[in-house]
Amino acid sequence: MLYLVIFEIVYSITDVVVSPSIYIHESVYMVFINEKDRIVHKTVLRFFLILYCGCFGFSLCVFSIQFYYRYLVILGSKLLKTLNDWRFIFWVLCPLGYGVIWAVVSSCILYQTPEANEFVRNVILRDFDMNIDDIIFYGAYFFPKTSDGLYHLDVRSFVGVTIFWILVISSLTIILFCGIKCYTRMRSVMTQSTKFRNLQNQLFYALLVQTIIPIVLMHIPVSCLFIFPLFELDVGNMADILAVTIALFPAIDPLPTMFIIKNYRITILEFICSCLVQTIEHSNTHLQDVYALN
Question: Which uninterrupted H or E stretch holds 60?
């Protein structure tokens, strides 16, 4: 959990610094920032944009690891002991590996090219009122046009996106596999005790919602980011929704557990009610003091 908290802090800082936009035009998708509006140097901005891309790859794995951990707990697996010895490093390195791969592919394969610059120059000026020369971006240009006006397949873009697909599909597979296994395991050990049966149902529904959340907020949007340019579906700045869903995911992910599990829900509501009561009492005391002075 501490590992996840540290990641979310780093991601939040990176998101505030970068505040990227995502854009799709025909066979191009791009994640970009406008350096003209920033006070830091272009090299620093480029670093933070790469870090932002890496954070997305990291998040794909770290939340999949959460599902794998839950599966091991329900299974009572001996692999849980690896969290208490030197093998814990593998739990840490796996998300880091995803993040590093995503960052390296973005910076070394899906880098900004003059051909892509010229292709999106007019639409960036039209839709964002920005000069393409002031923009830093990473992305793919699947079907660039040659000097004779013909389109050709850009192998570099396909290689980069294929690597991304491998990471996305592997993350989704882990989530679905562990989610289904957790469900079947919970049903197979369902106790006759009403108390424990209610708790197991709550855990199941929390797991169900937490399985849907990353699929809806991360896997589906990023899949659309890769698929739309392949079929030249020009959605323009509507692709920016992906940046919003990525930012929302860490905040929304804990909510099912907090509000579906009865004990957590009661504790949270009691805390909120206590804060409201204290606020009202403080306001009443302040009003009484004001009236007394008058």
Answer: helix 42-75
C-alpha Rg value of the chain to the nearest Å: 24
The fold adopted by the segment(s) 2-256 is Rhopdopsin 7-helix transmembrane proteins (1.20.1070)
E strand spans, 68-191: 135-141
CA dihedral 61, 236, 228, 15 (to 10 degrees): 0
Q: Residue 198 has what pLDDT?
A: 74
Q: What residue ranges do the domains of the chain occupy?
A: 2-256, 261-294
Segment 126-166, tens digit of pLDDT? 988 899 999 999 999 999 987 777 888 899 999 999 999 99
Q: What are the structure tokens assigned to 92, written together?
A: 């840490």
- Of 182, 202, 218, give the one whose Cα is nearest residue 257: 202
- Please state at what angle helix 42-75 crosses helix 241-252, rounded to 10 degrees: 40
Q: What is the pTM of this model?
A: 0.84
Q: Of all helices (H) and strands (E), which one includes residue 280?
A: helix 262-293
Contact yes or no for 251/8 (Cβ under 8 A): no
